[in-house]
Amino acid sequence: MTDDDLTRAADWLRAADRVCVLTGAGVSAESGVPTFRASDGLWEGHRIEDVASPDGFERDPKLVWQFYNARRANARTVEPNPGHLALVALERRWGERFTLVTQNVDGLHRTAGSTNVLEIHGSLHRTRCLGCNRVTDRNIQEDLGDEPACPKCYGQLRPDIVWFGEALPESVWLPSLNAAYGCNVLLVVGTSAVVHPAASLVPIAKRKQPAARVIEVNLTRTEASQMADVGLYGPSGVVLPKLVERLG
Ligand code: OAD
Hints:
alpha/beta, SIR2/SIRT2 'Small Domain', 2 domains, three-stranded antiparallel sheet, 10 helices, 19% strand, binds 2'-O-acetyl adenosine-5-diphosphoribose
C-alpha cells in the first residue's frame, strides 16, 4: 500500500455522500476466526458440501450441529479487532448514509458497535425452526447440543445461516442492493469475492452513472481487484485504522 493510494482512497471517502462496505472473513482473521478458503478446500477438516448445504444437513444433522457448535465456541473466545472498530468510526461519521454489508456470521461487527449491519449470510447467534420457521437469537454462550429442538413446537432447529444453494433472505439482500447501487464509495474488505450473489455488489456499485469508487482492502488481489479503483493491500486491522486517520 503506497501513501498515495491511501490519500486517494481517503479523498474519495471524504467527498462521498453515501458509503457502503462489503466485508468477508478476512476482516475477522486478526481476531482469530479462520477464513474459509484454505488451500486444501476444507473447512476445519470438513468438505463444504457436508457442513454447509441443505443436503448435508439432511444427511447428517448431528455433524452439522457439531461443526456449528464448534464455530459458536470459537466465536465466544474472539473479540473485534481494530479493523472492526475502524468501521464503527466510519458509521459514526456517515450515520444512516453508511451501510455495512457482511458475509460474516460471527457477529463481531455488532459486538464492535456497528449498528447498520446487514448480515447477508445469516448469523451463528440465531437458530431457525424447520417446523414453525421461528428465528431465535440464542446468542453464542451455550452449546446447543447436536440435536437441538424448537422450544415452541419441538421441530428440528438449524443454524440461521445461508448455505450453498440457498437464496439470500430478501430482508437483507434488497437493502444491500440498494446500498451498493446508491453509494459513492464501496469499500470491499477481506473477501475473496468469489461467492455470489454477495460479490455481485461490486459490479452493481460500478454499473450506475457516475460509478462508485471501489476501494479494496485485502492481503492480496482478488476477483474484485479488476473493478477496484485502488487497492490497499495489507491486513485490514492495520489498513482500515490508517484510512480513518487519513480521513481526518
Ligand atoms: P474467503 O475465505 O473466501 O476469503 C477471505 C479473504 O480475506 C481472502 O481474500 C484473504 O486474502 C483475505 N484476508 C485474510 N486475512 C486478511 C486480513 N488480515 N486482512 C485483510 N484481508 C484478509 O472468505 P469470504 O470471501 O468471506 O459463506 O467467503 C465468502 C463466503 O464463502 C462466506 O461468507 C461463506 C463461504 O461460503 C457462507 O457461509 C454462506
